[in-house]
Design a protein that fits this description.
The chain is of the alpha+beta class. The protein is built from 15 helices and ten strands. The relative contact order is 0.08.
């Protein structure tokens, strides 16, 4: 059983789970106390089952205590006993710690929402309590599922952008160019068409468009009737959120003033971005981050600023924060490939950071017990996942001497490769 103690250390470090320790005067109303002996990720159910069987054999059956393997949203836990008093739980904990040094007393509150994966109860009273707890967890899960369903239905009820046909006069990289063309075209159109003359933002570009037609034929006939108007008929999903300027609800004179205001704002943003990019070139990431932190508050709907903030945070090593900024940029402009590329690098860096933490935990376990098969296999798996098969080969050779079955599993991974992906919390 020597592998158990370092294995518990590995899992607790890897998940960085901070348990709630019970005190003699706990805050809030506690249902009971229990002893948590281990925590595992959802993908490590095989190890969790092994630990659960060990606890059942060593403590539950011998000492008439219930033991449970429980499943949460992100982890599996093994808990031993139901105690009304902390003092009683602490007395049992002293015995458990002789074999599992990282076990601790946990205060169990209402509505935990954990599912019972496996349980062993050896008397009628604890069996009823476990059943009641499982029922409460299922009730909480059902409530959450209903909430998700309600949110989804409410989202579906929202109006989706309708498909239309329109005349696209041109696409411009700068808002100023689009505004100048808008002014020129406004003099060629009748009043009825001015209401549909607009500038829409698509990705990094500005599209000047006229008309909202139900059919392609209607749009084509309008374009043919305006010999001086150069443009093409395009199919689009019309959304007011994409319109940065329109004559629809303002007089022409006031509209031009609004457009000039947008132009000045765009120029200010361009100057700001130029300044930040210069700081990034000089690797002044701290000052760039400070400026961008204020900029996303001032211009929250500008995707380029969110993406630039993401790039800065990525350079500083804050991959999770960078991920959120790139995600926002994509929400605002989903068609810019650079934003998706930045999101990909953020996810890659998040994974690399987690892999490094995992490597350090496995190495620490091996310092304690150099022949820990579970730690060796885990370390080899991480090496494969980060494409360090040379290091995985060294682990494989060590495993051959200790556990041929574990060595065979690692050999299969080395030969076939391993692809692990994830989402930040």
């Amino acid at each position: 059983m020597g592998f158990l103690r370092p294995l518990v250390i590995i899992i607790i470090i890897f998940l960085t789970l901070t348990p709630l320790y019970a005190g003699d005067t706990p805050e809030g109303k506690a249902i009971h106390y229990s002893i948590q002996t281990a925590t595992y990720s959802l993908t490590a159910q095989r190890y969790a089952r092994r630990h659960y069987d060990f606890i059942k054999k060593e403590f539950a059956q011998k000492n008439a205590l219930p033991v449970r393997l429980l499943k949460g949203n992100k982890y599996l836990v093994i808990r031993l006993g139901w105690f009304k008093e902390f003092k009683e739980a602490k007395e049992v904990l002293a015995k458990v710690k002789t074999l599992i040094s990282d076990a601790f007393v946990l205060k169990i509150k209402q509505n935990e929402g954990l599912e019972v994966v496996a349980s062993y109860v050896n008397n009628e009273r604890t069996q009823k309590e476990a059943k009641k707890k499982s029922s409460e967890g299922k009730t909480e899960k059902a409530r959450k599922e209903k909430t998700k369903k309600d949110v989804k239905e409410a989202t579906l009820k929202k109006e989706t952008p309708r498909v239309i046909y329109t005349i696209e006069v041109g696409t411009y990289s700068r808002l100023k160019e689009a505004i100048n063309e808008l002014k020129a075209i406004s003099e060629q159109l009748g009043k009825e068409m001015l209401d549909s003359l607009r500038i829409e933002r698509h990705g990094m570009n500005y599209s000047l468009r006229i008309g909202i037609f139900n059919t392609y034929k209607d749009a084509e006939e309008f374009l043919a009737s305006r010999a001086s108007l150069k443009g093409v008929v395009v199919q689009s999903r019309y959304s007011k959120e994409k319109v940065v300027f329109s004559y629809a609800d303002t007089r022409v004179g006031e509209g031009v003033e609004d457009a000039e205001g947008l132009r000045r704002q765009e120029e200010e943003i361009e100057l700001f971005i130029s300044d930040v990019e210069e700081r990034l070139e000089n690797e002044d990431f701290g000052e760039a981050a400070r400026l961008l932190r204020e900029a996303v508050k001032r211009w929250p709907e500008n995707p380029e600023i969110h993406a630039l903030y993401g790039e800065t945070l990525l350079n500083m090593g804050f991959a999770k924060s960078a991920y959120r900024q790139y995600k926002k940029a994509i929400e605002l402009s989903p068609d810019v490939s650079e934003y998706h590329s930045g999101l990909g690098y953020s996810l890659l860096n998040i994974y690399i950071q987690r892999a490094q933490e995992s490597i350090e935990a496995f190495q620490k376990a091996l310092e304690i017990d150099p022949d820990n098969v579970d730690a060796l296999e885990g370390l080899g798996t991480v090496y494969v996942s980060i494409d360090r098969k040379d290091l995985a080969e060294e682990i494989y050779r060590r495993l051959l001497e200790l556990d041929p079955v574990a060595a065979k599993r690692l050999r299969d991974l080395i030969d076939s490769g391993l692809n692990i992906t994830g989402t930040p919390q």
